[in-house]
Amino acid sequence: MDPGIRVQELNAWFGGTQALHDIGLEIPSRQVTAIIGPSGCGKSTFVRCLNRMHETLPNATVKGKVTISGLDIYGKGVSPVTVRRRIGMVFQKPNPFPTMSIYDNVAAGLKLNGFSNRRQLDEVVQRSLEGAALWDEVKDIMKKKSGASLSGGQQQRLCIARALAIEPEIMLMDEPASALDPISTSKIEDLIFQLKQQFTIVIVTHNMQQAARVADLTGFFLMGKLIELDKTEKMFTNPSDKRTEDYITGRFG
Amino acid sequence: MHNISFRRRFVNFLGIGAIVGATLVVLMPLFLIMGTVIYRGIGSITWAFFTRIPQPVGETGGGMANAIVGTAMIMGVAALIGIPLGVGSGIYLAEYGRNASGNIVRFTADVLNGIPSIVIGITVYALVVLIQHHFSLLAGGIALGIMMIPTVCRTTEEVLLMVPQSVREAALGLGIPQWRTTLSVVVPSAASGIITSIMLACARVAGETAPLLFTAFGNQFWNLKLNQPTAALPLQIFAYAISPYEEWHRMAWAGALVLILSIMATVILVRFATSRGMLKGAH
Ligand SMILES: Nc1ncnc2c1ncn2[C@@H]1O[C@H](COP(=O)(O)OP(=O)(O)O)[C@@H](O)[C@H]1O
Ligand SMILES: [Mg+2]
After folding, report:
1. Closest CA in chain A for residue B187
2. Nearest Cβ partner of A109 from B164, B166, B176?
3. Whether the CB of A13 sits within 6 Å of ligand 1
4. Which residue segment(s) compose the domain that A156 sits in?
5. Is the CB of A44 under 6 A from ligand 1?
6. pTM of the prediction?
7. H or E segment at B151?
8. For the segment B15-47, what is each residue's pLDDT rounded down to a tens digit?
9. Which ligand is nearest to the CA of A54?
10. Rounded distance, CA B251 to CA B239, Å?
């Protein structure tokens, strides 16, 4: 029933400043886990540690253990590239590849890793676009139009399709709807609902209503520390920690 | 009411006048150069100019065909050296060069950019010509190629740094290795800028004379061999311009006109192609 994610004593730094302190938690598989907290509390840094993206920034370092179906992704000899191939990531701002068509955007993860069977690529692209609820809107233009020509909401779904195409086990979403209008946002939320049938999803959001709508579990971060992680319902009705309560009732942050 | 509007219109008029005036002042040297070269050179541009080689003094009907072809071939050699090294080091600086060795490369490129072209000519003379025992097309191409490297390198670095970080992250996040991300995602996103920088560097060195004096050397006859001295437009212009003969002076102006026009044509063509997105990756 893996892959869930187990995080133990995770610390992360930007140069000399520590951004994450001793994070430990378990993320169950095929559920949606939301990460909430005031801005700057380390939400992005945390999810970027789950697929080894943190270390791509200059001077950024990580210490700790992250286990995904038995594999310690920071273990000796584990290549970050293979880790990232198993984990899809969607960023805050839609970032389609500007020079590629819609089709090539979706196929990029496979093509650029040397996969070239045309018929199978066609299948994967269709499946991924359908999975991201974008197929009907782009099926006639996907080879001619560039990814950048789509609307913001469509671009974000394109980025989701692009992540789906590498057939990951886990999806990380860093505020995927924060740059979108309400209609696009609700489309993305519907999508998250469907995707959790197949994937373990971790979604960062600063929008508590959104966390309440989509997440099974919610974790609250504050100043680089995990304050608590619990069933979403419990977090929003009866949190164990005073600071969580203060945050969700809007008393700070 | 009326007053304010008049004042505004007047100030606006002055402002626009100043801008137009400044533009004209900036463009003046260009027009002066173009005007003079066209005026002096156009008369000697004949069919023979493009098809014949130079004739001895007194005989008419000579041309610069060998120099035109020579410049084209020297530029070919220069491009083979300058483009891979320039683009390659630019990519290195932008994508992998945020460290001490990157700073060394950057510093070296800037120093190389500041070295007078005649010094590069002498250096290539010492390192290539003296060893080959020949002035040669190859030596000329090497000299110009070296001159291209720093310009292409630093502008390539600049345009690559303009590619948003989010594009790199998107690719890395898909499990695409860094080198693949660089070659297949980042570089294509900056392709039009890189091509522009290459063309500008070519245009810049195509007219260089000093580095060719002790390398390609010049030649009154045809040469298509890499290891032989070769005519080149700037050298031929130089030789004719300092000669005492009126006829040769006219040929020098015609040569200058052809040189300028071909450089301008290249630049305009590339600008046009990249602005129309005709080259892959241009947006
Ligand atoms: N590239 C970076 N370089 C240096 N510090 C950073 C960088 N990105 C984030 N930080 C710092 O790390 C802390 C956590 O940031 P982040 O994880 O982006 O927070 P969140 O996503 O919760 O808003 C913040 O204090 C922020 O200033
Ligand atoms: Mg963030």
Report:
1. A99
2. B176
3. no
4. 94-167
5. yes
6. 0.88
7. helix B137-161
8. 999 999 999 999 999 999 999 999 999 999 999
9. 1
10. 10
